[in-house]
Design a protein that fits this description.
Number of domains of chain B: 1
Number of strands of chain B: 10
Strand content of chain A: under 5%
CATH class of chain B: Alpha Beta
Helix content of chain B: 25-40%
Number of strands of chain A: 0
Radius of gyration of chain B: 18 Å
Largest sheet of chain A: none
Distance between the termini of chain A: 96 Å
Oligomer: heterodimer
Number of helices of chain B: 7
Order of helices and strands of chain A: HHHHHHHHHH
Shape of chain A: elongated
Radius of gyration of chain A: 23 Å
CATH topology of chain B: Rossmann fold
Structural class of chain A: mainly alpha
Chain lengths: 260, 242
């Protein structure tokens, strides 16, 4: 009887692979090889984790943001003491309306979830596009799986932020490197939004992106770097643009009432 | 006049009210010397508060100019004007303008946070000023827990927090009973004795005990100026005084 070589144990076809989380963060090279070879879509696990941690961050920041809106004097304009009592009351009323459930929980939660999911689709699409243009032959499905897992450092960042806010009972002001350009003026709003993203977890994410591009294609080192750099520039611009536009719109001066 | 500190030249301020134009100030020339205690008096609508707001950089004139401590306010952009107000001017208002969500201590400390003073120093300095105006034991009370006189004393402490050389008070006793009003005027007189320039808009006749210079305004013009009695005599045909 001829000996048959032992066939490798097939990977279970599960969509939720929480057992891959630690390997992705600790041994990304081997973990991404495995994800790349997986016949199943596994993007759901990292995206669930990213969504849950992002929502937890919003939930924990909520009460802090509410009390800050009402009590923290840092948000008041410098000339607030010169406002008449009526003007002060109107300003505080407007401030209170921004500390409603919708402003503090619902909208930030929707924005955080959208950022995770739209960011994943956009980054996956951009990396795939650039890789294809540079001669890579990776499928969109595989790239979306890999890019989703490469976002895990941001889940770690959200967890760290949650613990910080719980322990310190204070909001995180000027995250990342954005502290270098505060106070934010309309001119620096875009730069501040970009720098908000830049921190050690973002660097970790870049390293994971380099690994996935190397694992999934046979491109030269220069092309791997080019792919990641171009994709990140596009991703940062996409992430920063909404915030910068909001900042510009919120600082517009209405010089005459509408219709008059 | 020795060492002019506040100088207004051909100062005009007009407001558009509906289809009409109101001349709040119609060409005011005024000089107030350093460390003076000046009282601006006149009937309602004569332009007293407008004059004070222009001197303090809270508003800009329609024409003419104001200079304070040699600084022409017309030349300053909004940021520079805010810095001028922070460093040079302390304002006291009739309605106190305290922030109701803050304690007396926080109200006094509030302007310092924009001067970049650390929180601990802000609180220590604010508490020192509240002690100076006799409100150390009320530091942690909110404005609605204080009497009108106490609120005005908190406002005076706040006006002094950045150690301004110029104090502007707009009807500081207007909402106070006689005794509290007297205390407030005494505090303003103390500030004058400390070497600050104090300009007070007031209907309170007791202001004449302290003022070394009195300016009578009527319909946006200065009709008399000098020491109280002298100015009174000059203005008598036109002004009905309290």
């Amino acid at each position: 009887m001829a000996d048959h070589p032992a066939s490798p144990t097939p990977e279970p076809r599960r969509r939720l692979r929480f057992d891959w989380v630690i390997p992705v963060l600790s041994k990304p090279g081997a973990a991404f090889q495995r994800i790349s070879a997986s016949p199943t879509d596994t993007w759901l696990t990292p995206l669930l984790l990213l969504t849950i941690t992002a929502l937890a961050s919003v939930l924990i920041a909520g009460p802090l943001r509410q009390s800050a809106a009402l009590l923290d004097t840092a948000g008041l304009p410098p000339d607030f003491q010169y406002f008449t009592p009526d003007q002060q009351a109107q300003y505080m009323q407007a401030l209170q309306s921004t500390s409603s459930i919708a402003f503090v929980y619902v909208l930030p939660a929707v924005a955080a979830a959208l950022k995770v999911w739209v960011g994943w689709l956009a980054l996956g699409g951009v990396v795939h596009l650039i890789l294809t243009l540079l001669g890579g032959r990776v499928t969109m499905r595989s790239m979306l799986n890999l890019v989703a897992w490469a976002g895990l450092p941001f889940a770690v960042r959200d967890l760290v932020r949650v613990f910080y806010m719980l322990a310190g009972r204070q909001l995180i002001h000027s995250p990342g490197l954005s502290g270098f350009v505060t106070p934010v003026s309309t001119g620096t709003a875009f730069i501040a939004e970009v720098l908000e993203v830049v921190d050690v977890y973002w660097v970790w994410h870049i390293i994971l992106l380099l690994v996935i591009v190397r694992v999934s294609s046979n491109l030269s080192r220069a092309k791997i770097w080019a792919t990641v750099v171009m994709a990140q520039v596009a991703a940062l611009a996409l992430q920063a643009a909404p915030g910068a536009i909001m900042q510009r719109l919120s600082s517009l001066n209405i010089i005459r009432p509408f219709f008059f | 006049m020795s060492d002019p500190f506040v100088h207004a030249a051909a100062l005009r301020k007009t407001y558009l009210m509906g289809r009409g134009i109101v001349h709040a100030l119609a060409g005011v020339d005024l000089t107030i010397s350093r460390s003076a205690f000046a009282a601006v008096i006149g009937p309602s609508g004569s332009g007293k508060s407008t004059l004070l707001h222009l001197i303090g950089g809270l508003d800009r004139p329609s024409s003419g100019g104001v200079s304070v401590a040699g600084l022409a306010l017309d030349d300053l952009d909004e940021n520079a004007l805010a810095a001028f107000r922070r460093r040079t001017v302390g304002f006291i208002f009739q309605s106190f303008n305290l922030i109701h969500s803050m304690t007396a201590l926080e109200n006094v400390a509030f302007p310092m946070q924009f001067a970049g003073v650390p929180r601990r120093r802000r609180n220590a300095h604010a508490f020192g000023l509240l002690t100076q105006v006799g409100l150390a034991d009320r530091a942690l009370h909110r404005p609605n827990e204080l009497s009108g006189g106490e609120q005005q004393r908190v406002a005076i402490a706040r006006a002094l927090v950045n150690d301004p050389p110029l104090v502007l008070a707009d009807e500081p006793t207007g909402n106070l009973d006689s005794q509290s009003g007297g205390q407030v005027l005494q505090l303003l007189s103390d500030l004058h004795r400390q070497g600050r320039t104090v300009i007070v808009v007031s209907h309170d006749p007791r202001i004449t005990r302290y003022a070394v210079q009195t300016v009578f305004l009527l319909d946006g013009r200065i009709v008399a100026e000098g020491e109280y009695q002298e100015a009174l005599a000059l203005a008598a045909p036109e002004v009905t005084l309290p």
